[in-house]
Specification:
By secondary structure, the protein is mostly helical. It has one domain. Helix content is about 70%, strand content about 0%. It is built from 16 helices and 2 strands. The chain has a two-stranded parallel sheet. Helix 4 runs antiparallel to helix 12, helix 7 runs antiparallel to helix 16 and helix 11 packs across helix 12. The model has no long low-confidence stretch (mean pLDDT about 80).
Length: about 290
């Protein structure tokens, strides 16, 4: 059997562990509840004002805020808490394949689960908002009302004028989806590193610290904590935009042609490099990982 086939076989075995697994079921239930909570305000607003939405707009509004991305990434803990995955077939595969093959199966599983999770969130948003939505690639009157009238701030729906003027819904959704996927991959691979280096508790703590770091580097929070004058707040926004992984994953925290924030391709590159570095560290740690079979 080729190495690629072995990697796929081990990855498939990890997915078979989903069957009747209450931890995985709970993860998808919580993800569904999270989507309902995040889309509720947009649905209520559209019904109140008798307007319709572009089908991806609620997803864009929900994840225009770094805090929403942070909460979404936390749910991945349920999927990856048991990494590295060891089962009754692991000794058999380790005899027939190298450790590198085993760890590549773990990495492939992380990537696949992250994509499944992100597509699940996007699809649930679309299903929940479908009765009040259209599929055309243009911003709706609901988005215009939220962005230009200031009503969005009153109902806590961050429909950014910056987003609406610089992109179209499909392009914007794809960018947000990709940024969120890279950030969640960063969190998942970091969790894997500390699971291998320490234990499962260390992996959970590492994700918490990563998200706390991103939360504390929110430009508004930094401005309030350090009492930064409004005239210097822009510099604070630029600095935190570059050094915070969470801000790199936040769509509106980017340069669309008139400031010094990172451009989208900068964030793509930085997040991809971080994820690849984590994968290299995982491979190195796996070489001396001590297997314990019961």
């Amino acid at each position: 059997m080729s190495e690629f086939c072995l990697v796929c076989s081990m990855t498939r075995l990890n997915f078979l562990g989903w069957k009747k697994n209450p931890q995985i079921v709970l993860a998808f239930i919580l993800a569904f509840v999270f989507c309902v909570m995040m889309s509720a305000k947009a649905i209520m607003f559209a019904r109140t004002y008798g307007t319709i939405m572009q089908i991806f707009e609620p997803f864009v509004w929900a994840f225009s805020d770094g805090k929403s991305i942070l909460l979404a990434s936390f749910l991945l803990i349920f999927f990856f808490m048991d990494m590295p995955f060891i089962n009754e077939a692991t000794p058999y595969y380790l005899v027939r394949a190298r450790r590198s093959t085993w760890i590549w199966a773990q990495i492939l599983y992380i990537v696949a689960v992250t994509l499944i999770y992100m597509f699940f969130i996007l699809i649930v948003f679309c299903i929940l908002c479908a009765p009040l939505s259209f599929v055309g690639n243009m911003w709706s009157e609901t988005g215009a009302l939220l962005g230009y009238s200031g009503v969005g701030e009153k109902v806590a729906l961050p429909a950014s004028v910056k987003i609406m003027e610089m992109s179209k819904p499909y392009k914007c959704t794809a960018a947000i989806f990709f940024l969120m996927t890279l950030y969640t991959l960063l969190a998942a691979t970091l969790m894997m590193i500390f699971n291998l280096l320490k234990n499962k508790f260390g992996g959970v703590v590492s994700v918490f610290i990563l998200n706390l770091y991103g939360l504390l580097l929110n430009p508004d929070m930094v401005g309030r904590l350090l009492n930064i004058p409004d005239i210097l707040q822009y510099k604070s926004n630029v600095i935190t935009g570059w050094i915070s992984p969470l801000n790199h994953a936040t769509y509106y925290m980017h340069n669309f042609g008139y400031d010094l924030l990172p451009r989208l391709w900068h964030s793509y590159l930085i997040l991809v490099v971080w994820v690849l570095l984590n994968i290299l560290i995982i491979r190195k740690l796996a070489r001396r990982y001590q297997f314990v079979f019961s």
